[in-house]
């Protein structure tokens, strides 16, 4: 094909993007891999922690053999010293999608970070940068006051998010406090004015939503497997970098708990148990978000397994090939 020829039409239609979403340990990565292999697609990361270079094991990034099987994008692209954001990811993912489509291939977004997915599909509020001092103060106040009392402070600053967020949702509460304090305007006000969504694309949203007991068991099995594969050594290397503990990579589930183990503050079993509990709590918040804020086109109420691939693949093709009103 000469450079003047148009790119081939993707097998699922021009400007179609597959979105494989769901709570942690639901089988998203495995499904995305099979779809990419079947369609000649490219897997684009939509997980806020899998963007960090130093955390391959603990964030359950695709292994090298999977990355060699099909193209992967936006995995391990940021150093742990950087702060990723929904706006940064939206712009990076948007550029990757355009590049994949121009090559005549299928973009396959894969991840469970709902804020990132919404930033691309619906747009995101352009919140001004928040000074590091405000972020650090939010972290300190949350640690000193505890979740319930800190949420009351957030409620006074931002009544909408103060009611919506749970006391244990530390990162979002701290973000709401820091933004309101630094800008003088509630974060919920900023969020009510999203910009930058890709309404020129057709999104086929696939939601994996296994029953909670299945998810809870998968979380524990997966975390213990991470330990066997070297998660402690990975966190030891990260801790040795001496980074700001408020950085997102330093707050990834498992990092603070394993640092406590490395520093002799708890034994390994206790660190693993605490990490599993934290992951299950995160999965619960994800389930709530996907249940109320993610409009899926195709939903699988089970953990993905290869035996169910043909059915999902058929549903995806049917959705994409059905004319939209």
From TrEMBL:
Q: Which purpose does this protein serve, as stated in its record? A: Catalyzes the transfer of a dimethylallyl group onto the adenine at position 37 in tRNAs that read codons beginning with uridine, leading to the formation of N6-(dimethylallyl)adenosine (i(6)A).
Name the SUPFAM superfamilies on file: P-loop containing nucleoside triphosphate hydrolases
Q: Which GO terms describe its biological process?
A: tRNA modification
Q: Which residues bind substrate?
A: 24-29
- Region labeled Interaction with substrate tRNA — which residues? 47-50, 171-175
- EC top class, as a word: transferase
- Name what cofactor the protein needs: Mg(2+)
Assembly and interaction partners: Monomer.
Q: Which GO terms describe its molecular function?
A: ATP binding; tRNA dimethylallyltransferase activity
Q: Where does ATP bind?
A: 22-29
Spell out the reaction equation it catalyses: adenosine(37) in tRNA + dimethylallyl diphosphate = N(6)-dimethylallyladenosine(37) in tRNA + diphosphate
List keywords of the entry alphabetically: ATP-binding, Magnesium, Nucleotide-binding, Transferase, tRNA processing
Q: What is this protein called?
A: tRNA dimethylallyltransferase
Q: What is its EC number?
A: 2.5.1.75
The similarity comment for this entry is: Belongs to the IPP transferase family.
Q: Name one Pfam family in it.
A: IPPT
Can you name the source organism?
A: Thalassobaculum litoreum DSM 18839
- Record HAMAP family: IPP_trans
- Site feature: Interaction with substrate tRNA: 113, 141
């Amino acid at each position: 094909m000469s450079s003047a020829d148009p790119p081939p039409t993707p097998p699922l239609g021009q400007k179609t993007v597959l979105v494989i979403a769901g709570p942690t340990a639901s089988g998203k990565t495995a499904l995305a891999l099979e779809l990419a292999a079947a369609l000649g697609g490219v897997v684009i990361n939509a997980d806020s922690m899998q963007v960090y270079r130093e955390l391959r094991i603990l964030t359950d990034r695709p292994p090298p053999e999977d990355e060699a099987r099909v193209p992967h994008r936006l995995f391990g692209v940021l150093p742990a010293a950087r702060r990723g954001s929904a706006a940064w990811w939206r712009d990076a993912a948007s550029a990757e999608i355009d590049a994949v489509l121009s090559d005549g291939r299928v973009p396959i977004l894969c991840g469970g970070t709902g804020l990132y997915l919404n930033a691309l599909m619906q747009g995101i509020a352009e919140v001004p940068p928040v000074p590091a001092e405000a972020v650090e103060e939010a972290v300190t106040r949350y640690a000193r006051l505890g979740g319930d009392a800190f949420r009351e402070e957030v409620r006074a600053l931002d009544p909408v998010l103060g009611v919506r967020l749970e006391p244990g949702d530390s990162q979002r509460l701290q973000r709401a406090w820091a933004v309101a304090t630094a800008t003088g305007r509630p974060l919920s006000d900023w969020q009510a004015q999203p910009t930058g969504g890709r309404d020129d694309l057709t999104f086929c949203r696939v939601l994996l939503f296994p029953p909670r007991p299945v998810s809870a068991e998968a979380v524990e099995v997966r975390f213990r497997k991470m330990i066997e594969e070297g998660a402690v050594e990975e966190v030891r290397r990260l801790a040795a970098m001496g980074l700001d503990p408020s950085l997102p990579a330093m707050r990834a589930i498992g990092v603070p708990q394993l640092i406590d183990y490395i520093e002799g503050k708890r034994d390994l079993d206790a660190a693993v148990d605490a990490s599993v509990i934290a992951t299950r709590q995160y999965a619960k918040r994800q389930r709530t978000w996907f249940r109320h804020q993610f409009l899926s086109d195709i939903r699988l109420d089970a953990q993905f397994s290869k035996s169910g691939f043909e059915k999902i693949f058929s549903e995806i093709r049917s959705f994409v090939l059905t004319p939209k009103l």
